[in-house]
Specification:
Length: 140
């Protein structure tokens, strides 16, 4: 988390079912994240949310998140927003945490029927107690 300066979050992820809701672990990175968040949505919250900027345009959301991050990374949360960033050439790396559970529903990661292949280079592979962590560079 020390390399992250801001989060760019999709609407579904922002409004999603946080398993830690109502506890001290609620929020990004099990409640450990403190910093700016930019949420891409056409339906912003009716009242201000501290630390959250709502934006309804992808280019503006990316620019806002980059400015907020300064010289650090922008971390993207949400499969659909990650796919959108990939399509416009704004995704440099992908970090996935592979857990031993199969989901029956949800947004597919980079689902793009008829789309082109995306070439990736493995940067690292590590194992934690309950997940395998895979870091990939998007080759452009």
């Amino acid at each position: 988390m020390g390399e992250i300066g801001a989060l760019l979050v999709g609407n579904r992820t922002f409004r999603g079912d946080d398993p830690n809701r109502g506890t001290d672990k609620e929020g990004a990175f099990s409640g450990e994240w403190t910093g700016p968040q930019v949420v891409l949505t056409h339906h912003p919250a009716e009242t201000a949310v501290p630390g959250i900027t709502f934006v309804d345009d992808l280019d503006q959301a990316i620019a806002t998140a980059k400015a907020a991050a300064g010289d650090k990374h922008v971390n993207i949360l949400g499969a659909d927003i990650a796919r959108q960033c990939l399509e416009v050439g704004e995704l440099d790396e992908i970090v996935t945490f592979i857990a031993p559970v199969l989901l029956g529903d949800g947004v597919r990661l980079f689902d793009h029927p008829g789309g082109t292949n995306v070439k990736l280079e493995r940067l690292s592979l590590s194992h934690a107690a309950n997940a395998t962590n895979l870091r990939l560079r998007v080759l452009k």
